[in-house]
């Protein structure tokens, strides 16, 4: 019997009709740069490690993180997280608590004893790093990974630099610092403490193939304060250093701290913990102009620290400090008003800036010092070939994070100087000297509809009463649950996270799903180029590209 | 609507259940469309326009129905865009048993298929009929009403793109007021489609007290799939009304189809509801409410409301329709209080529960 056409028609025979010919634009999967990654001075790519953390793969997350930065537990405590300031989630509700997750990973790694990647194949090159602070230790770690022999010399009794002697223990407990430093040492870095380097040229003459100066800014700037002979005046750097070494200097009941930076806040909070019932910061300008980070200031205020805004110290004497009220002029600069007031104060602590001790480069040919810092080129090399410098002793914003980033950059530059490829043995280039040029994902490139609503998980804090009575850590870590929650708040800007939206919303069934980890491909035989996949991609990881005409 | 429970265990996922899939979710709890083995009941090579909402909606619905029935089902298709673009001679894009019918008789043909299967004792094979809004709310409405009245064992799915798009964008009984179509041109003192006419087919179906009535859109896949699955769990007459934006007829970008549907729902202009045996039992609440203007402004068919002069009174009138939907179904209140003239059935819950979210 002849069967009718309709009943013999093959199922899905429209596949013969290649509708891809209609296309004027094609979707392409792209990897764009998340804003957190471009904002990080230590060249971390938080989106990359949050991706693993979201799935509970914490060790993978940690390993991705330490590709760039060997100090996650330290960073998770002391970094001022410019990544979070840049985070696109802040436009949706609140920025992802990247810093808190970083700390969680860092603490978990210390608890689990995860070790850093092994040193690279020996190159036979020897590098001297001067200074065992964040920049120096970061450089040492990356240089070891590149196979160089590294010795770090430091004048301090223990390694860590400002992480040990500048940051109080209530912000960075010493066991955390010791653990992360020990892990770097375990990769084969030799650290010589109590060994100050006083002459860079002499050090170079010892036969090192390169020297990296990361001496920091260890000297408290001495502002001129008219003072009577009996006035007790300390500088904040010395105070913090002494306390870090276990001293408990007697400051009296009333302490005045002069300055507006993070060191001033640290000094005031330390004074409170040393028994001062009144700890007052005297600052020339207003809170919005204060260089200290807002969170630190808020914590200080919680602890009962007072601040005299718009005030300068006019004169100090035994038991009394005279302050003058200031006014901001049109350009925002404080101007004296002549209105004076006497405040009772047993000790005045000066926290008006820090300077690098650069005696070791005095007379080194080619090394230029301008405004108290060593001048370097784009590769962090000084005018003396083979002599590199980074961190607080060079022209830069001064923070632990910047120091760590400088260390990574210097390691790369030194490796290139020594004839190496300038990259780590892994595929990812460590610490590119220039910012990536790929598109940074702005919020308008995302489709935020798809992200579940979620408020920011707040790290628990120690009650104020317990804070001021000792040096216990103030900000506590996240639990496994809250860390996972926080990691999952990541929008994965610019990177596919396999949500299947493109596969689902294609009206032409022209997206091929390749299975877990494999992501997708476009079936160009049938894709009409409607752009729905790109429009509905939450992460902005699909771009419509014009077809050649 | 999203669970953000901070206690044990962590119930929060990056994209929750809003996206099609979610690599962090158990595969069993992802949408059907995320599956590698989805049926693709409507496969590639069809001739629908770029970004066609109806092609997308039909695959969503039929794939879900195929899953619910284990593939044992027959589809009856009314004439319309969906038929024309999927079966131009000599090809078909369907990967389901599929019957062609006339523009207006799909419900009657489906009733006949159901009767035939019953006569053959084949109670394992289910019937799904589908058509556009023209074939459903206008031409086929008599046959559909009869199918409802007889309680024939058919799920009828209407893909609503608000007009006769296949024949050149003529007005249908589902075209919204003020919209420009080929037969409601932008001329005269009240340009576009008239106010006060047209049919709300979901409410008409509910008034038949049929087993199950639901509305959905292609902007919320999980909701749509759950409704198809639920519909297939009932026997008897059922009706599903799916909003499927049409880039051609609505004058929207081809990439904006899903977004347009989302704005229709989030503005309240298209209410997403569910009713069992004549009573509304749940509503999909608005997640991020937007003014109806956000929905209208990017559609060419409403361009005359904004250019050359803004017609605020018309926009207000359309907003009033959205507001009325919101009030009628409790689309924004945290706990919906449904206005109901009749006392609720003893089994009906006091308030419609919010659709459970995959956490």
TrEMBL record, chain A:
GO terms for MF = iron-sulfur cluster binding; metal ion binding; oxidoreductase activity
Q: Which InterPro entries match?
A: 4Fe4S_Fe-S-bd, 4Fe4S_Fe_S_CS, DPD_II, FAD/NAD-bd_sf, FAD/NAD-binding_dom, Helical_ferredxn
Q: Does the keyword Iron apply?
A: yes
Domain 4Fe-4S ferredoxin-type, residue spans: 518-547
Cross-referenced SUPFAM superfamilies, in alphabetical order? alpha-helical ferredoxin, Nucleotide-binding domain
By its UniProt entry, which Pfam families does this protein fall under?
Fer4, Fer4_20, Pyr_redox_2
Instruction: Recite the UniProt keywords alphabetically.
Output: Iron, Iron-sulfur, Metal-binding
Q: Which PANTHER family match?
A: GLUTAMATE SYNTHASE [NADPH] SMALL CHAIN (PTHR42783), GLUTAMATE SYNTHASE [NADPH] SMALL CHAIN-RELATED (PTHR42783:SF3)
* Name this polypeptide is given: Glutamate synthase
């Amino acid at each position: 019997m002849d069967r009718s056409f309709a009943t013999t028609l093959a199922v899905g025979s429209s596949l013969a009709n290649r509708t891809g010919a209609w296309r004027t634009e094609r979707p392409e999967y792209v990897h764009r740069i998340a804003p957190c990654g471009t904002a990080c001075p230590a060249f971390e790519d938080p989106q990359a490690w949050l991706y693993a953390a979201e799935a509970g793969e914490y060790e993978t997350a940690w390993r991705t993180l330490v590709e760039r930065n060997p100090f996650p537990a330290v960073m998770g405590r002391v970094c001022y997280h410019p990544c979070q300031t840049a985070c696109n989630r802040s436009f949706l509700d609140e920025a992802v608590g990247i810093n808190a997750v970083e700390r969680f990973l860092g603490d978990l790694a210390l608890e689990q004893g995860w070790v850093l990647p092994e040193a690279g194949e020996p190159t036979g090159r020897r590098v001297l790093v001067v200074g065992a602070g964040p920049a120096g230790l970061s450089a040492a770690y990356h240089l070891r990974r590149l196979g160089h022999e590294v010795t770090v010399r430091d004048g301090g009794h223990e390694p860590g630099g400002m992480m040990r002697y500048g940051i109080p223990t209530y912000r960075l407990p010493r066991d955390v610092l010791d653990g992360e430093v020990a892990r770097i040492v375990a990769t084969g870095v030799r650290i010589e403490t109590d060994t100050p380097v006083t002459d860079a040229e002499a050090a170079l003459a010892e036969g090192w193939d390169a020297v990296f100066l990361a001496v920091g800014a260890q000297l408290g700037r001495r502002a001129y304060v008219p003072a009577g002979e009996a006035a007790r005046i300390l500088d904040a750097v010395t105070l913090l250093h002494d306390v870090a070494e276990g001293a408990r200097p007697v400051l009296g009941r009333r302490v005045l701290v002069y300055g507006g930076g993070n060191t001033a806040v640290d000094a005031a909070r330390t004074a409170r913990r040393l028994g001062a019932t009144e700890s007052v910061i005297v600052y020339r300008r207003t809170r919005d102009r204060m260089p200290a980070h807002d969170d630190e200031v808020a914590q200080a205020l919680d602890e009962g620290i007072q601040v005299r805004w718009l005030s300068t110290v006019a004169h100090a004497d035994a038991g009394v400090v005279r302050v003058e009220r200031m006014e901001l002029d049109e350009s925002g600069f404080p101007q004296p008003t002549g209105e004076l007031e006497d405040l009772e104060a047993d000790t005045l602590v000066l926290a008006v800036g820090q300077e690098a001790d650069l005696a070791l480069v005095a007379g080194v040919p080619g090394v230029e010092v301008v405004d108290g810092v060593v001048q370097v080129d784009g590769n962090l090399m000084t005018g003396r070939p083979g002599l590199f410098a980074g961190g607080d002793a060079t022209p830069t914003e001064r923070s632990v994070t910047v120091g760590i980033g400088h260390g990574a950059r210097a390691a790369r530059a030194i490796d290139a100087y020594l004839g190496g490829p300038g990259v780590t043995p892994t595929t990812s280039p460590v610490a590119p000297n220039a910012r990536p040029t790929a598109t940074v994902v702005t919020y308008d490139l995302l489709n935020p509809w798809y992200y579940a609503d979620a408020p920011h998980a707040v790290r628990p804090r120690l009650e104020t009463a317990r804070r001021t009575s000792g040096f216990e850590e103030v900000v506590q870590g996240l639990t496994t649950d809250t860390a996972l929650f926080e990691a999952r708040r990541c929008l994965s800007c610019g990177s596919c996270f396999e949500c299947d939206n493109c596969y689902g919303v294609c009206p032409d069934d022209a997206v091929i799903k390749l299975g877990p980890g494999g992501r997708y491909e476009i079936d160009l035989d049938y894709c009409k180029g409607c752009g729905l996949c790109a429009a509905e991609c939450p992460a902005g990881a699909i771009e419509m590209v014009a077809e050649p005409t | 609507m999203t669970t953000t429970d901070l206690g044990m265990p962590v119930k929060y996922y990056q994209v929750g259940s809003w996206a099609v899939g979610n690599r962090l979710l158990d595969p069993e709890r992802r949408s059907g469309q995320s599956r590698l083995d989805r049926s693709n009941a409507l496969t590639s090579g069809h001739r629908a326009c770029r970004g066609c909402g109806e092609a997308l909606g039909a695959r969503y619905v039929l794939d879900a129905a195929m899953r619910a029935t284990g593939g044992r089902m027959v589809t009856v298709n009314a004439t319309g865009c969906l038929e024309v673009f999927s079966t131009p001679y000599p090809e078909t894009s369907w990967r389901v048993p599929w019957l062609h019918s006339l523009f207006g008789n799909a419900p009657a043909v489906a009733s006949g298929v159901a009767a035939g299967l019953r006569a053959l004792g084949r109670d394992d094979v289910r019937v799904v009929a589908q058509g556009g809004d023209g074939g459903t709310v206008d031409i086929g409405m008599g046959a559909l009403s009869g199918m409802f009245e007889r309680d024939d064992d058919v799920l009828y799915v209407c893909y609503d793109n608000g007009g006769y798009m296949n024949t050149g964008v003529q007005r249908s009984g589902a075209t919204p007021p003020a919209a420009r179509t080929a037969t409601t041109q932008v001329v005269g003192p009240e340009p576009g489609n008239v106010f006060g006419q047209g049919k709300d087919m979901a409410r008409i179906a509910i008034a038949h007290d049929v087993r199950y009535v639901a509305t959905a859109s292609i902007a919320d896949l999980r909701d749509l799939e759950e409704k198809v699955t639920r519909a297939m769990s009932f026997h008897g007459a059922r009706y599903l009304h799916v909003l499927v934006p049409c880039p051609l007829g609505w004058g929207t970008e081809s990439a904006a189809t899903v977004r347009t549907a989302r704005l229709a729902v989030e503005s309240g202009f298209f209410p997403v509801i569910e009713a069992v045996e004549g009573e509304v039992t749940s509503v999909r609440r608005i997640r991020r409410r937007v003014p109806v203007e956000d929905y209208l402004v990017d559609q060419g068919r409403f361009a005359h409301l904004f250019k050359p002069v803004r017609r605020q009174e018309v926009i207000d009138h359309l907003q009033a329709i959205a507001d009325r939907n919101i009030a009628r179904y409790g689309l924004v209140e945290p706990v919906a209080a449904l206005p109901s003239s009749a006392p609720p059935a003893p089994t009906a819950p006091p308030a419609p529960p919010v659709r459970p979210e995959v956490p």
